[in-house]
Design goal:
alpha+beta; two-stranded antiparallel ribbon; about 30% strand; thiol protease; signal; NLP_P60_dom
Amino acid sequence: MTTKILPLLLALLLLAGCHRKLNYRDGQYRSAREMVRLKKGGRVHPVGKTKVVGVAPSGAKIKVVAKRPARVGSATGTLASVIEAARSYQGTPYLYGGTTRLGLDCSGLLQLSFGEAGVTIPRSSNEQAVWGDPVKATDLRPGDLVFFGASPGSRTITHVGMVTVADAEGVDFIHASTSLGVVENSLESDYYLSRFIRAVRPRL
């Protein structure tokens, strides 16, 4: 009996040790995309670094988060203009129903950005989800619209963004985040992948 349990316990201990090191490199957690880059010998581009720049009169440290520069996409023509317009709204705060630089919601950002390029699109994310041809997640291109649910596995669309870059390094998209306002994020993050529902390519 003991001779049967001992190998099993050793195997479990080895597995536990491996699990703790999964996606860790240089003592830091890395995303799946960063791990692939590291294995290929490429550089990992940090999403942002926090730097202490001073101390407030109260004694609290003043921190600034420096975001990585936006990657250059391959969009051309009208879609390049739409992406440029959307990026001009970065930092605009989230406002449900908002359609101005004072505040935007996700579908409002896209409606304004396409509008600046002379293209009229529907207002709501549900209407935008059928304004185009379905695209597989593996075939995304800059300008494609990506749709998400409120929770992992949900099939009810509550959020929309637009792909800005799609290349060997991954897919980035711009959207109006409820917490950060208009911002670009990686589609490969666990948060967005778990909520991804569908993508469409606009009919221009």
